[in-house]
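Researcher: Next sequence.
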Amino acid sequence: MSPVYDRVKELLIDKFGVPADEISPESTFEDMDLDSLDLVEFALAAEEDLGVRISDEEAEQLTTLSDTVALLEAKGAKVS
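Model: Next structure:
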């Protein structure tokens, strides 16, 4: 997987307590038991960590982790 995927996975594990074995490219936020508030917090954490902006409309459209990573990469996310 990409560095952005790896970083997003780390965020989900470290900040949201998602077990690593529940995270795959096909995982949905629902699969990972993240609610709408968690999604907002995730978007903010990803913005801060990866240096990109995710609009509310974009966040609402994200369903799988691979969708999320694709959006972040398209926006030029940088892993430091």
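Model: The helical segments are 3-16, 36-50, 56-61, 65-74. The CA atoms of residues 16 and 64 lie 16 Å apart.
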